[in-house]
Amino acid sequence: MDMNNTRLKELLDKYLQGTATEAEISEVDHWYRSFENDPALTAQFSPEQRMALEQLLFLRISRQVEAAEPPVRVGYRSVRWAAAAAVALLIAAGAFYLVRQQTTKPDTTLATITEQTNKNAIKKISLPDGSLLWLNIDSKVRYAKQGRELWLDGEGYFEVAPQQGTPFLVHAGALNINVLGTSFNIDAYTPDAKVTVTVASGKVAVGNEQHQPATLTANQQAVYLPAENQLETNDITAADVSAWTQGQLIFKNARFRDIAQRLERRYDVRIRFASEPIANSVLTARFDANVPFKNVLGMLCDIYGFSYRQEPGKNEYLVFKKGQPAK
User: Fold this and answer.
1) Which of 136, 144, 156, 248 has a 20 to 30 Å separation from 126 between CA atoms?
2) DSSP conformational letter for 43
3) What would the pLDDT profile of 76-132 be if each residue is shown by its tens digit?
4) Maximum CA extent, the chain
């Protein structure tokens, strides 16, 4: 298919701005198919135009996925979708350049808006495309004024407005989350040792330069562990994960140390444990978010017969086993 460079770049820019028609997207797709084995394919494009081409390919793959039978269970090693070969081809062609070089860093050439929350408030944000974002406490998001690309540091729950021809792309930690229209939760606080993506409805693709995308559907979760470079998937009740948007804290079979991490953010405190067995105790509990911190900590300690003490003059608490000296 013949297409001059000026026309192609014009179509890619329209796609980035969210103004490309279905016919124009199809025009780019046909052009790419005719040259997809050319390793110099994207050398003429800007980084932003490379990103547009990558997103357009994802859109084509996603449509193929929608037409196929969904798998009973999604796992990293057993993902059944047509993206693997296409993504490998795209990497070889160089169209993943921007994703590989800027996994977590916003493109400074884009016009963006930055919003953040403190340790005492959750914020509901209406995004330019009509999507909604609930930004959890102590979180930050940066998003493009035009197009559908965001960078998240912290936790957010998204309700993505369907927009034919324009996927919704979120960068969180070392992961890229590509969406067509869905609701999902991302937990990607910088100090944490993992990034978690939980899908409430619809379908998303989660991956990075080391891992081919894994598809998630409702009540499925992907956990990325940077230290081990592992991407794991499992089934989960998504409503429990996003309960914070409704003013609730729900923990199911969670380690005390992981619960403490969330409590520290919500109540602006520090929690320490007298021993590793205490920190690794598995708990299930549900609280309203407005319950005072000491009440929450006390009820959690009662489950296993633990106790706690507050360090004098500090918002710091030590959890220890009753009857044993607290150090």
Assistant:
1) 248
2) T
3) 333 322 332 223 223 222 222 223 333 445 455 568 899 999 887 899 999 999 999
4) 80
pTM score: 0.64
Strands 149-159 and 306-310 come out as unpaired
φ and ψ of 156, to 5 deg: -150, 145
Q: What structural domains does the chain harbor?
A: 5-101 (no CATH), 112-237 (2.60.120.1440), 247-321 (3.55.50.30)
Res. 5: pLDDT tops 70: no
Place of tokens 């923990």: 251
The token duo for 24 is 């124009």
- DSSP assigned state of 111: -
pLDDT band of 69, cuts 50, 70, 90: very low
Tokens of 266: 């919500």
**3-state SS record for 10-66:** HHHHHHHCCCCCHHHHHHHHHHHHHHCCCCCCCCCCCHHHHHHHHHHHHHHHHHHHH
| pLDDT tier for residue 71 given thresholds of 50, 70 and 90 | very low
Under 8 Å between Cβ of 327 and 309:
no
Kindly state the helix (H) or strand (E) to which residue 91 belongs, with its residue range. Answer: helix 83-93
d(CA 220, CA 155) in angstroms, rounded, equals: 17
In whole angstroms, give the CA distance from residue 157 to residue 180.
15
Per DSSP bridges, beta strands 248-255 and 203-207 are: unpaired
Query: Left if phi > 0, otherwise alpha if psi is -120 to 50, otherwise beta: which for 79?
Result: beta
